[in-house]
Design a protein that fits this description.
Layout (H helix, E strand, L loop, with lengths): L3 H19 L19 E3 L3 E9 L8 E9 L2 E6 L9 E4 L3 E5 L1 E3 L5 E5 L2 E4 L3 H8 L2 E5 L6 H12 L7 E3 L21 H14 L3 E4 L5 H13 L3 E4 L6 H7 L3 E3 L20 H10 L5 H13 L2 E4 L1 H5 L10 H4 L4 H15 L4 H19 L4 E3 L14 H11 L4 H8 L1 H7 L16 E5 L12 E6 L2 E3 L1 H7 L8
Parallel strand pairs: 2-5, 2-6, 7-10, 10-11, 12-13, 13-14, 14-15, 15-16
Antiparallel strand pairs: 1-19, 2-3, 3-4, 6-17, 8-9, 17-18, 18-19
Helix pairs in contact: 2-16, 4-5, 6-8, 7-12
């Protein structure tokens, strides 16, 4: 039997041998590990980059400025002007015929996707990359199905170990009973809502999403607790009206007016009305009517921000185009089949209200903005599929142009407005000297040709340039898998 003394002697010999071996030079080919392979989607990582002679839309809402240049140094915007000289050794990108905007700050995004039977799979590998391809450099998740995955992903991105947008992570959905999704907890009253908020705040969530079957008492408690921490609350509501939520102090309401039940006859307190009645009311209500204008004034007076998510509403509207083939190619076959089965059914629904739904939501958002309300933008990649990061953010910008906003306003809504809401506007949201170099270089002029938004040539985050086309090509068939 081996003795303890023998074991120790053997260990000493092994250590001595290891020391001797360490003194023997390694063969030349083994002295250094091979350099890591440069990702194909990494277009620029030089410390100094000059983007020259672009049409600049800076995110503030100011008119576009032609013939402008932007100098990037060590990940930040070092200068903005018409006659910037290229420093020695700088990488120069010629921008003639192109438009430069800030990176998008989108406010209703998710890291999950509908994978069938009321289930949502976490896409923590594909989605961060797809969002970058779509020009999104900062986002809020606006609802979490796998909160620890979202929190850990936020850390990985911040540390530079995973490419993706900076993330503001919401807690799991705060909702009452009645939702047929087993991943969502059902609250049992205001005390239960308080327990959830306290728990997820301690875990690192920085904002809160209230959902359809929440009660006024639960919503009020969530708002009170979040505000005590200096945090904000948004909501996709149904049982609580917009007016009631505004009076309770909610900061943000999702989907424009699409989730408003204020105009449904015989609406009962704390109860979601019939969905068909809600959709009919929303598709037919006149934005100029006294009841709509009164609600808009209340929201504006209370400082409630609305999130425009025209992308998801488009998928529910009869007569709208199918998702582009290049987007559908990103889906796994079963998830694509799910979309292909449902989309024709939407197109066959009878009644003008379904054909008018998107157009009326656009009119309501314009009325809100015209009255001084603040819009932010998001995409919401849920529903029955077809709202796919990388394509959906660009589509959201196109739909806001279709709604009648000029391009400079669209960019402000989708960048600086979101940054201000998140309290990050000192760093991101506009193209100004000193801010982080989060930028989108667009091939063409979206103000005269909205299809130019399908041509994001490069996306920069912290001065590092990504090639969207390469990212999208490399992720075909992944959405629904990981």
């Amino acid at each position: 039997m081996t003795t303890a003394r023998g074991i120790l002697a053997g260990l000493a010999l092994a250590l001595a041998a290891g020391t001797a071996l360490a003194q023997i030079p390694a063969p030349p080919e083994a002295q250094a590990a091979p350099a890591p392979r440069r990702p194909a989607w990494l277009a620029f990582d030089e410390p100094v980059i000059l983007i020259r002679d672009v049409s600049l839309v800076d995110g503030t809402g100011a008119p576009a400025r032609p013939g402008m240049s932007v100098l990037i140094r060590d990940g930040r915007i070092d200068g903005v002007g018409p006659d910037l000289a290229a420093p020695e050794g700088a990488r120069v990108i010629e921008g003639a015929g192109k438009t430069l905007t800030p990176g998008l700050v989108l406010m209703h995004e998710h890291m999950f996707y509908p994978t069938g039977r009321d289930n949502y799979g976490e896409m923590s590998f594909s989605f961060p990359r797809l969002y970058l391809a779509g020009g999104v450099t900062t986002l809020r998740t606006a609802g979490s199905m796998s909160p620890y995955a979202d929190l850990n992903l936020r850390t990985e991105i911040a540390a530079g170990r995973t490419p993706g947008p900076d993330m503001d992570v919401t807690a799991p959905y705060l909702n009452g009973p009645g939702l047929p999704i087993v991943q969502v907890n059902a609250l049992e009253g205001a005390d239960d809502a308080e327990r959830m908020v306290n728990y997820w705040a301690a875990e690192g969530a920085t904002s809160y999403k209230t959902y359809m079957q929440i009660t006024r008492a639960e919503l009020g408690r969530v708002v009170e607790l979040a505000h005590a921490r200096g945090q904000k609350v948004t909501g996709h509501l149904c049982s609580v009206t917009y007016r009631e939520a505004a009076d309770l102090g909610i900061d943000n309401l999702e989907h424009g007016f699409f989730a408003s039940t204020d105009f449904v006859a015989d609406k009962q307190p704390d109860v979601c009305p019939d969905q068909a009645a809600t959709l009919t009311a929303l598709a037919t209500i006149d934005p100029a009517s006294p009841e709509v204008q009164a609600l808009i004034r209340r929201l504006v007076d209370k400082g409630v921000v609305l999130t425009s998510t025209l992308t998801i509403i488009e998928t529910l509207t009869t007569g709208r185009p199918k998702a582009p083939e290049a987007a559908l190619e990103l889906l796994t076959p079963p998830v694509r089949a799910q979309y292909e089965q449902v989309w024709p059914l939407v197109q066959q629904r009878p009644g003008d209200e379904f054909r008018n739904l998107l157009a009326n939501m656009m009119r309501l958002e314009r009325a809100f903005a015209d009255a001084g309300g603040t819009l932010v933008a998001g995409t919401d990649p849920t529903g029955y599929g077809g709202v796919i990061p990388g394509f959906s953010s660009r589509r959201q910008l196109q739909l806001m142009l279709e709604a009648g906003f000029d391009f400079e306003t669209v960019v402000r809504i989708a960048s600086l407005n979101g940054a201000r809401f998140l309290g990050r506007d000192a760093e991101v949201g506009s193209i100004e000297a000193g801010k982080r170099a989060d930028l989108i270089l667009i091939d063409g002029d979206p103000s005269t040709d909205p299809t130019a938004l399908d041509r994001f040539q490069y996306v920069f985050k912290s001065g590092v340039g990504y090639d969207p086309a390469v990212i999208l090509t490399g992720l075909k068939g992944t959405v629904g898998l990981h």
